[in-house]
Amino acid sequence: MHFDWTFLVRVSALVLPAMLLMVLHGATAKAAETSAPLEKLASRRIFFGHQSVGGNLLDGVKQIPASSQGLAPRIVEVKNPTESLAPGTLAHALVGQNEKPESKIADFERMMDAGLAKSTDVAFFKFCYIDFNGATDSRALFEKYRVSLEGLKARHPGTTFVHVTAPLTTVQRGAKAWLKELLGRPVWGIAENVRREMFNELMRKAYGGKEPLFDLARLESTAPDGTRETYELNGQTWPAMVPGYSDDGGHLNATAQARLAKELLNFLASLPAPAVQPPIPAVQATP
């Protein structure tokens, strides 16, 4: 039996280029699908108040591949709340003091009222894991946060305020944890994460599906394959940070920085465009 190799060559010459074009088209479409939302950030003016874990997220933004750098917002530090922010800016500043969460609420509120809200489309701040200990009154802290944000939203209707759940830590395990339990001493992360999650549940109940909520705690406790990192305490299940996301149990390592920063940017890009506020009518002088 004679096989027509010439026919095979002719067919290959026609089919292979077509297949190559399909592959390239698919790759281009996928890249466009991934980067398209970030284009919305080019017109947004965003402010982020934070401490160390927030700095980890910003480090992750800086890790964005060079091919997408033009789509990512420009990171600038705010030194004076009266300065104006340019479109395409992710501005940030340290707010309050660690282990004093009320000071972060007050500092964020002060900066917004001092003029920053006038040039900000989106604004938010986050607490740190160190703001919570085993005795923190999570409900009282949430109530102070809620009242402050309600006031800010009323005074600055042109700014979209985003809520962020409190970050978690890993839970100490192994021989050291076993020895502490044997001696009746607290195991690092167990009681603290309970207080953090109690606060976070109040945040989800109040704002989930109603106002923008970036669930940092859920992301930190979810592995890349979708499984959740949890532990048991008194018959209840509580979330903890995935051990692979941190080198010290609390701060984000390079892997987590890249993953969570991408989630944050996609979240910010998905927010509706800020509402345009009507101009305030001029007051006519009485003749």
What does this entry show, briefly?
The chain is an alpha/beta fold.
Verbal overview:
There is one protein chain. The protein is α/β, with parallel strands linked by helices. The chain has helices at 5-35, 52-62, 101-113, 138-155, 175-183, 190-207, 216-220, 254-269; strands at 45-50, 74-77, 89-94, 122-125, 160-161, 163-164, 213-214, 230-233, 236-239. The strands form three sheets. Strands 2-3-1-4-5 form a five-stranded parallel beta sheet, with helices on both faces. The longest helix is centred in the N-terminal third of the chain and has 31 residues, at 5-35.
- Give the integer mean of the pLDDT values: 84
The fraction of residues in strands falls at 5-15%
Main-sheet strand order equals: 2-3-1-4-5
Number of strands: 9
Q: Enumerate how many helices there are, as a single number.
A: 8
- Shape call: globular
Share of helical residues: 40-55%
Secondary-structure element order, as H and E? Answer: HEHEEHEHEEHHEHEEH
* Stretches with pLDDT under 50, minimum 5 residues: 15-36, 282-287
Q: What is the radius of gyration computed over CA atoms, rounded to a whole number of angstroms?
A: 24 Å
Cα distance spanning the termini: 109 Å
Instruction: Describe the largest sheet.
Output: 5 strands, parallel
Label the structural class: alpha/beta
